[in-house]
Amino acid sequence: MSDRSPFFILHSDLPREGPGCRADLDKALSHITVPQNARILDAGCGPGADIAGLLAHAPQGHVTAVDGQAHFIAKVTEGWGHDARVTAIAGDMLDQTEPFDLIWSAGALYFLGIERALAEMGTRLTQGGALVFSELVYLVDDPAEELRIDCEAEYPDIGSIDRLKDRVVAAGYQIRAAFPVSDEAWEEYYTPMDARVAKLRDGASAELAKVLDEGAAEAAIWRKYKRQFGYVQIVAVKET
Ligand SMILES: C[S@@+](CC[C@H](N)C(=O)[O-])C[C@H]1O[C@@H](n2cnc3c(N)ncnc32)[C@H](O)[C@@H]1O
Residues near 56 by Cβ (< 8 Å), separated by ≥ 6? Predict the structure, then answer.
């Protein structure tokens, strides 16, 4: 993606690239013991919104923040370049093979496909290490047709929380917690997105206007159907 692509114009300067908030991070990590000096991988870190929270749980630890998009990594470097506890890497999360005490991934494992991601991340955990990730699921048995069409165009593999939990267990993990991410977490993504869409409307090219419409539509679908679908936060440890 070029720095001048309409997608980049919309997404540059957003504090995060998917739902997440500090309270949900704290809640997830309350289910495991994070060593104070934990080696942490933030896999698909985006602009780095979760790094401060991760370091709060491991003040003498180290976060390897990796994302495939160099402009997000530039943001991480801008915010954390001065801190030796953070290494920001533009590249593929699968290239990070150091064993980690905690692998954190907010909304990024689905790019790999969940089975592959679970298997690959399992080989990168220390004994007793934890994989904490969020993934889109349906929260009801009978989601509205409009929602299904919208979700399944982008996430053909979406299913229920129970199906996701079964897949995590089948991959050899023990689940310590599974909970839908909060509305606050979604608003931390969509409130700044809505503001950015409004700011960029005037004088937008046709190409940019299309991307703005898509961003606004995504937020509107979440607001309309937020009790029917959402991200679930999974906290899992690898069985020995
Ligand atoms: C939905 S965004 C979430 C970003 C961030 N975790 C947050 O919550 O703000 C998913 C991110 O995963 C990144 N990504 C997808 N596949 C990746 C891969 N194989 N290696 C590294 N990053 C990847 C994308 O570039 C994108 O920034």
Answer: none
Does any domain span residue 84? Answer: yes
Residue to probe by mutation, ligand 1, list 1, 22, 67, 104, most atoms within 8 Å of CB: 67
How far is Cα 165 from Cα 169, in angstroms, rounded to an integer? 6
Ligand 1, atom 11, residue with closest C-alpha: 44
Confidence at residue 188, expressed as pLDDT on a 0 to 100 scale: 97
Mutate to test the pocket of ligand 1, among 22, 45, 182 (most ligand atoms within 8 A of CB): 45
Evaluate if residue 3 carries a pLDDT over 70: no
Question: Within a domain: residue 173?
Answer: yes
Q: Which domain holds residue 177?
A: 6-238
228: domain CATH number? 3.40.50.150
pLDDT, tens only, 162-184? 999 999 999 999 999 999 999 99
Total domains in the chain come to 1
Ligand 1 pocket by Cβ (under 6 Å): 16-18, 20, 44-46, 49, 66-69, 72, 92-93, 106-108, 111
